[in-house]
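Quick note —
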Amino acid sequence: MLRRKIYDKILNWKNRSQGRSALLIEGARRVGKSKIVEFFAQREYRSFIVVDFAKPKDGVVDAIVRHPDDLDGLFNLLTLSYGVKLFRRESVIVFDEVQLCPPARQLIKYLVEDGRYDYIETGSLISLRRNVEKISIPSEEDALPMYPMDFEEFCWAMGDEITVPTAHEAFARLKPLGQAAHQTILRRYREYLAVGGMPQAVNAYLAERDFSEADYAKRLILKLYADDISKYAGNDAPKVRGVFNQIPGQLAKKEKRYFLTSVSEGARMREYAESFRWLDESKTVNIARNANDPNVSLGMSEDYDTQKLYSSDTGLLVTQAFMDSDYTENELYKALMLDKLSINNGMIAENAVAQSLRACGRELYFYSRYGRDKSDERMEIDFLIRRAGKISPIEVKSAGYQHHASLDKFMKKFSSRLGTPYILYTKDVMERGGIVHLPLYMAPFLCEKG
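Predicted structure written out below.
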């Protein structure tokens, strides 16, 4: 069983809630929700039942839909159907893939009020309109998002407990690790970018340390996502598919904001708003929005017409970029492991930073402005985060970058609002000209309080 940080968060919910709320774990398909919940139930409860709504036992759905007021009957049916005895306040009932049975989610209100057992729900595509429009969302439900494995979780899977604490110590002191230590960590990080954080791909890679096995697993996941779009996006499916398929091409450009003309000539954002919303709610992408007047509350100035789309998992992006080619033709694997990524393939690094910020609960914002006449008004900052009560701009650069003109102009324009500016790149820790330079693998640490 892969070690996941979300385990401790689930345990915190159990200890804090004491049966006063259910827990909903939501995330993209194949991020490992069902596995971690079953593992948790085995370790933390006297007994448990997993009701998988993708293949429920006979009569279970009917009992929930037709007789929601007969909880005694439901519990008796679950005990008999699954052959598991339930113990008051010592058992948990898991509703797996709860989006397939919306009435079960609505029933949570009454199950929690009854108080006999704990309840955990897992779901993908759970926020889609079709999965919630006919039910009342229970207020007795605590939501917990789940993301692909982060770099530290990947290190744990590799049997490595040292790398991330070593990097964190250097970050805390803002001192270089030294060339040998930095290169060792960077090699591990590039390995993580190539494989990604989807548990299915990580397990495939662990068996033989073979990127081709991980790539095959990721292709299956991407096919599943494509099938979900066809199945659940309804009349918007062609638009959703078009937007999703263009993500690698959009990120490969120097200016990474999403241009709909690559999907359809003359397309307008208002025509594709539902497509962006669908992808966002499915958790298959991470959306960054332009904060055109950045202040401490970045959301107050966000421009919904100017967005960037990132893959929810950088490993999936590596595979998606060469989806129509054989694994052996995927130049990104070789480039990652040999540290030969060109500036055009900086999309991998930027996507990884976006993934890191989202995994620690940050919404994604950037700054983009293009004045036609004034060159000093033209600038683009990759990410903006709120840190220590100020706005910190973040630029993602290649190892051999020569200048940071946009960052300089941004710092001049908004100097009174800004905290520490950061450049994330592939070299060691350095501070120069008031700008802190950090290795890419330190991106998650920026979520900590400054």
